[in-house]
Amino acid sequence: MEKENLTPARFADQLQINRAIISHILNGRNNPSLDVVTKILDEMDYISPEWLLKGTGHMYKEGHHAESLPVEPDLFRSEVINQRERPEDVEKRQETLFKPTVSTTQNAEYKQFEPPKTENKKITQIIIYYSDNTFEIFNPQSGRNEIAK
């Protein structure tokens, strides 16, 4: 992926596999399955199977060089992606994009926050249910308990 300049998501999309599969492989949670290895070799026929399976030999088959392969754009690299653009044009465009802004400060008004007023809430009734399908009602104002079946 690094040599091909591919993100994990782009690599998974290129192989037409679930992105989570690549994530699990990269995190060491799973090893690549035979299906994943086969898809890599089918999609990227210039990759050496010996290198992919055993880690020995050269990554690319003879006659293939990394420089000749298409490179995906990378947002984090500083070089110019569009080779048709002249560096002067890129610099001019960057100069016009980032103009400093004049910041103005305003004094904040300090206001005391008052929570909304609520009525005094009082408990009027408590019902307790028991496992034998009975319940008890307690009325705190009257101080009475009622047992019902």
Q: How does this model look, in words?
A:
By secondary structure, the chain is of the alpha+beta class. Among the domains are: 1-70, lambda repressor-like DNA-binding domains (434 Repressor (Amino-terminal Domain), Orthogonal Bundle), CATH 1.10.260; 123-149, no CATH class. It has helices at residues 8-15, 19-26, 34-43, 49-54, 87-97; strands at residues 126-129, 135-139, 144-148. A 3-stranded antiparallel beta sheet has the order 1-2-3, with no helix packed on it. Helix 1 crosses helix 2. The relative contact order is 0.07. The mean pLDDT is 76.
Quick structural summary:
The chain has 149 residues and is of the alpha+beta class. It has helices at residues 8-15, 19-26, 34-43, 49-54, 87-97; strands at 126-129, 135-139, 144-148.
Spatial shape:
elongated
How widely separated are the two ends?
72 Å
Strand content: 5-15%
The averaged pLDDT comes out at 76
- Looking at the overall shape, the CATH architecture of the domain at 1-70 is Orthogonal Bundle
- What order do the helices and strands follow? HHHHHEEE
Strand order of the largest sheet: 1-2-3
Major sheet:
3 strands, antiparallel
Backbone structural class: alpha+beta
* Quaternary state of the chains: single chain
The count of DSSP E runs of length 2 or more, i.e. the number of strands, is 3
Poorly predicted runs are: none
CATH fold-type name of the domain at 1-70? 434 Repressor (Amino-terminal Domain)
**Gyration radius, to the nearest Å?**
34 Å
CATH class bucket of the domain at 1-70? Mainly Alpha
The CATH homologous superfamily of the domain at 1-70 is called lambda repressor-like DNA-binding domains
Number of helices: 5
Helicity, in percent?
25-40%
